[in-house]
């Protein structure tokens, strides 16, 4: 059978592109080496899929070209996806910070996308690996099929044990396209021996403001056996490069709080004063780091100001991240300079498109990455 387009990868981006192209009348073959489609959707959002965010805007994405994502995101918005979800009768709710989740299960999102593909007559082949790709006479040949267009939607290498690969980069390089060095993003940090103090309080979470390279996020930080995690940390990890310091404010308004504690309980130590606001084990670790040896009542304004500065600007220099094994996404990828922002087609290779996480566009935590998958999928699907 002849196809108009072959799509490699039946994740969020590939399914969306397939449904869009199929419903527009194209003969679509969708290939994935996994035994089922949308595996990352199924595990996302704790099984409830944080499928988009009410606050989608281009500023919530990282890329070497911060303008690239604008076109696709503005032509297929969060409201378009919400409309699709509602048409399929899937109940949803906003959890926090504009993040939308299914009330039921992420399985509903995969079923919805599969139904949309079926409506477009998409042929899906699972358990088929996209090994060699050949291009001759204006046609792309892969896995025994051929078509004048190929959409690469194989994602990035995050979570390899789920079948994630860097196949998209290999295909890009095969066609001479530049790939922005991929790196794990939305990923926990590991801390060096010198910060072991904090790894002894594994499991403690605290509201915080985390800052890296001038970018900050106000969400929870979680101390782990190996370092730091939690939403605030995952967010700043995408902006982090080896050697950068991470600054954590775990007690906003620290000086006023310490002065109030001094007035209220002058005989108490710093540990007790901090335990009024923070989990006890964290209060103990922080008091040790601040090193204020005296009772609160004996502490001078200058000593409290020094303590407050430490608490509002805890500095960690991670010795690394937990890597692709734990990274929610991969930053970097096929360079946007190579692609049309309208169709996601390679400027130098007519008919070859890259979409989703494979491309150098990475969203914040909170539904931004799926919205990019949907929007870039629609952009490519409309173009075929
Ligand atoms: P995706 O990785 O989903 O799909 C690629 C597909 O290609 C896979 O089906 C894979 O099997 C296939 N493939 C790979 N190599 C192949 C080859 N050589 N041959 C054939 N097939 C191949 N985002 C968000 O917005 N909200 C959320 O709640 C979450 N939650 C979340 C939780 C966890 C644990 C992870 C790991 C990630 C998230 N994400 C997320 C991120 C989100 O899952 C991710 O950004 C999208 O799935 C990317 O969609 P793609 O379709 O581009 O790639």
UniProtKB/TrEMBL annotation:
Cofactor(s) for this UniProt protein: FAD
Keywords on record: FAD, Flavoprotein
UniProt keyword Flavoprotein, yes or no: yes
Keyword Flavoprotein found: yes
Domain RsdA/BaiN/AoA(So)-like Rossmann fold-like: 4-382
Domain RsdA/BaiN/AoA(So)-like insert: start-end pairs: 183-329
PANTHER family noted in UniProt: OS12G0638800 PROTEIN
Record-given protein name: Aminoacetone oxidase family FAD-binding enzyme
Organism: Vannielia litorea
């Amino acid at each position: 059978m002849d196809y108009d387009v072959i799509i490699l990868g039946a994740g969020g981006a590939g399914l969306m592109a397939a449904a869009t192209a199929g419903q527009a009348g194209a003969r679509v073959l969708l290939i994935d080496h996994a035994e089922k489609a949308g595996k990352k959707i199924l595990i996302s959002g704790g099984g409830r899929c944080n499928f988009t965010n009410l606050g989608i805007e281009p500023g919530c994405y990282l890329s070497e070209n911060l303008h690239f994502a604008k076109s696709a995101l503005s032509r297929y918005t969060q409201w378009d996806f919400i409309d699709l979800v509602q048409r399929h009768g899937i109940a949803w709710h906003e959890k926090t910070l504009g993040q939308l989740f299914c009330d039921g299960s992420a399985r509903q999102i995969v079923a919805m996308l599969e139904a949309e593909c079926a409506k477009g007559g998409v042929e899906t082949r699972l358990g088929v690996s996209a090994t060699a790709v050949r291009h001759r006479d204006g046609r792309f040949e892969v896995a025994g099929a051929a078509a004048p267009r190929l959409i690469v939607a194989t994602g990035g290498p995050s979570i390899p044990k789920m079948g994630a690969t860097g196949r998209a980069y290999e295909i890009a390089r095969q066609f001479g396209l530049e790939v922005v060095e991929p790196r794990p993003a939305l990923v926990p940090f590991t801390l060096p021996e010198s910060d072991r103090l904090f790894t002894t309080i594994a499991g403690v979470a605290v509201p915080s403001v985390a800052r890296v390279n001038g970018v900050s996020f106000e969400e929870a930080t979680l101390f782990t056996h190996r370092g730091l995690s939690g939403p605030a940390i995952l967010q700043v990890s995408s902006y982090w490069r080896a050697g950068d310091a991470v600054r954590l404010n775990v007690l906003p308004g620290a000086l006023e709080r310490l002065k109030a504690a001094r007035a209220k309980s002058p005989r108490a130590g710093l540990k007790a004063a901090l335990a009024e606001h923070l989990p006890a084990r964290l209060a103990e670790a922080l008091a040790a780091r601040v090193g204020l040896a005296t009772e609160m009542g004996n502490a001078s304004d200058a000593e409290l100001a020094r303590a407050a500065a430490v608490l509002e600007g805890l500095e960690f220099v991670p010795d690394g991240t937990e890597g692709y094994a734990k990274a929610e996404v991969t930053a970097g990828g096929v360079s946007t300079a190579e692609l049309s922002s309208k169709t996601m087609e390679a400027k130098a290779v007519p008919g070859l498109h890259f979409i989703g996480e494979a491309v150098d566009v990475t969203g914040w935590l909170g539904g931004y990455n799926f919205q990019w998958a949907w929007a870039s999928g629609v952009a490519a699907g409309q173009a075929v």
